[in-house]
Design a protein that fits this description.
The complex is a heterodimer. By secondary structure, chain A is an alpha/beta fold. Helices cover about 40% and strands about 15% of the residues of chain A. The longest helix of chain A is centred in the middle third of the chain and has 18 residues. The radius of gyration of chain A is 16 Å and the shape is globular. The chains are: A alpha/beta, B mainly alpha. Chains A and B meet through β4 and α3 of A and α4 of B.
């Protein structure tokens, strides 16, 4: 469970990832045998939970489908309860490269940052489709405008944080807008952060299962609504 | 119709399904409708007070404001319930995992 004397948890929110999740959990276990893996099954009606459990993950099951944000939050709460020192967030559709967890951990081990954010635009390893690239670039501008953070990528689910940062970051958005919310929380709590280049693989499977570009509109309206009326 | 609704509200209040403030507001609204049907000229006075042309227009504008306000209130309430459900579902997920662990 430890590396550099730290207890490290990898949180994977999952919804209908049967056939994929088992392989990802096994790969993480093989490469990082000391890490704890938490799969939060967001009320899938397939065998996601069983496959993850068989592969050796802690499995938490939502009895209602709440969304990726809520699943990430459940995983973080569980990891904190279990005494995690570092929490890595990762997608469970195979878009992220397991070995790149090392890149996220390095700045945390050296104390360079409280939060490490993966960026698909800091290297040319990711095959980002043009429309997605455009939407993400607009997201970068939106984040800069609303939170003041000048990032190169905003909706990348591959990130890691220290225990202290995870305890401070409050997430209320159940669905995809949680990714922007995390960035706002970084600013609000004055947490130090760094971006590292990571790969995001756009496969036929991930494009079918993952976030749609059209979700951007929903994310923006949710964030504006929260800012205006709920905060 | 109005009398029927006021009656239903009274029954709900006596069976403690709604509280007194809700009963007063709801009954007043429907009694108000009865009064306006009886004395439609009253709306013209309201229109004059609000500097709107006709009584019916004044009622229309006021209704819209009230409806939008209620929608807003309902949305906020809905958000709160949604957040409570989320908390419950998340807690249940963690508790179930703990139960599974103790069974092993």
């Amino acid at each position: 469970m430890t590396q550099h004397g730290k207890s490290i948890f990898v949180v994977l929110p999952a919804y209908r990832e049967a056939g994929v999740i088992g392989g990802i959990v096994s790969e993480i276990r093989k490469r990082y045998p000391d890490f704890s893996i938490v799969v939060v099954d967001d009320c899938s009606y397939d065998t996601t939970a069983q496959e993850a459990a068989n592969a050796g993950a802690h499995v938490l099951k939502h009895c209602i489908n709440l969304g990726q944000g809520a699943a990430v939050k459940t995983g973080i709460a569980f990891a904190l309860q279990k005494g995690a020192n570092i929490i890595v967030h990762m997608d469970s559709d195979g878009q992220h490269v397991v070995s790149e967890i090392d890149l996220l951990l390095e700045p945390l081990f050296t104390g360079k940052a409280d939060v490490v954010l993966g960026s698909r635009f800091l290297s040319d390893r990711s095959n980002v489709p043009s429309l997605r690239r455009l939407v993400l670039k607009a997201g970068i501008l939106f984040t800069w405008f609303f939170s003041g953070l000048r990032l190169t990528d905003t909706h990348n689910g591959f990130r890691a944080s220290t225990r202290e940062a995870a305890q401070k970051i409050s997430m209320n958005e159940n669905r995809m807008a949680h990714a922007s919310e995390i960035l706002h929380e970084i600013v609000r709590h004055n947490l130090s952060y760094v971006e590292v280049p990571v790969t995001v693989l756009y496969t036929k499977y991930s494009l079918l299962h993952g976030q749609k570009s059209s979700n951007a509109f929903h994310i923006v309206t949710r964030l504006l609504w929260r800012k205006l009326f709920l905060e | 119709m109005s009398l029927y609704v006021v009656g239903k509200a009274a029954v709900a209040y006596f069976h403690k399904r709604i509280r007194l403030p809700a009963f007063i507001v709801w009954s007043s609204f429907w009694v108000g409708i009865i009064v306006l049907v009886w004395q439609p000229n009253l709306t013209d006075r309201l229109a004059a007070l609000l500097q709107v042309g006709r009584g019916a227009d004044a009622i229309f504008y006021l209704s819209l404001i009230v409806i939008f306000y209620l929608l807003f209130r309902i949305y906020i309430r809905f958000e709160r319930i949604d957040s409570h459900i989320t908390t419950l579902v998340r807690e249940i997920a963690i508790l179930n995992n703990r139960l599974d662990d103790t069974k092993k």
